[in-house]
Amino acid sequence: xDSALGALPVERAGSGSGLMMTxxxxxxxxxxxxxxxxxxxxxxxxxxxxxxxxxAGDAAGESVVAAHAVADRLGSARLTDSADAAYVHGMGxxxxxSGVAALVMALLVAALPPxxxxxxxxxxxxxxxxxxxxxx
Length: 136
Known about the structure:
Blueprint: H1 2-6, H2 13-46, H3 54-60, H4 64-74, H5 77-111, H6 131-134
C-alpha cells in the first residue's frame, strides 16, 4: 500500500487510500465467498449419505455440525466419520488453493523489478509529506 500511495500526488492521497481500502474489502469478501464455496462443494461431494433417508441426507449435507446432529439422532458412526473426513478434505483443499495463490503472488512480487526511488536510499521521513508539513 505504501508503494501505491507513494506514487500518488499528495493532494490525491486521501482518495487513493479510500480506493485501496475498498479494493481490500471487496477482495476479502470475494476471497471468502470463493473459498467458502469451494469448501462447501468439497464437503457435500465427499459426504457419504448412502443408506440414509433423503431428508436426513439433505440435512447432513448442510454442514458438519448438522451431519453430527443427524448421526447422533440415527446412531450412525459411519456418518460422523464421513462428515469429519469430508470436512477435513475440504479444508485441505481450501488451504492448498490459498497456499498456491500466496506462492504465485510472492513469485510475481519477486519477479517485478522495483521502480526507481523504491530502494533503501530513500528517506522515509520525506515520503508522503504534505506541503504544509514541509514548512515545519
